[in-house]
Amino acid sequence: MGKFGPGELHAIAVAKELAAGRVLIDERDGTQFARQQGLIVIGTLAVLEQAASVNLVHLPTVLGELTRTTFRVPAALIRDALARDAARRGSQGDVTS
Prior knowledge:
The protein is mostly helical. 58% of the residues lie in helices and 6% in strands. It has five helices and two strands. The model has no long low-confidence stretch (mean pLDDT 90).
């Protein structure tokens, strides 16, 4: 097993017990282990992008707040998520940011 904590192990165990098929994990080793267990891994950015796509959150605001926490993700992933969000909002005619 890799370097991940009891939180990841618990999330994987619960997902398997519930036959959820999916688990929310961001940590690299936990993600790899979950995939080895046959689970589809969904990360925080994907959840937030999906929420933004149905106008539940304003992605630039939420990601700005998230980056001020202990959450760590490569800056390129944040930029890519924001670019996809801007393109989506642009295609919907939304000119607010």
